[in-house]
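Exercise 7. Given the encoded structure of a 75-residue chain, write a plausible sequence.
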């Protein structure tokens, strides 16, 4: 399962962010880590083609599945 969510960036300008900048957070959840990473790669390919830039990724907290969260920015 791939979940897309628009979230507000609250990073300070000193860290390269802006309080008004928008970003997309993508959550990829599956029964295995390999499948979750495959979904994350598929999402990255599609979002990059749509003009979004990959920012960071991390494990997603979910007690029922394995997940990966990734942030993307427009631009």
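Solution.
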């Amino acid at each position: 399962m791939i979940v897309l969510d628009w979230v507000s960036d609250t990073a300070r300008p000193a860290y390269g962010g802006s309080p008004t900048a928008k970003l997309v957070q993508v959550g990829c959840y599956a029964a295995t880590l390999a499948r979750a990473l495959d979904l994350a790669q598929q999402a990255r390919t599609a979002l990059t083609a749509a003009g979004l830039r990959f920012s960071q990724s991390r494990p997603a907290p979910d007690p029922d599945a394995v997940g990966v969260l990734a942030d993307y920015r427009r631009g």
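Remark. The first helix runs from residue 33 to 49. Students should compare their own answers with the one above.
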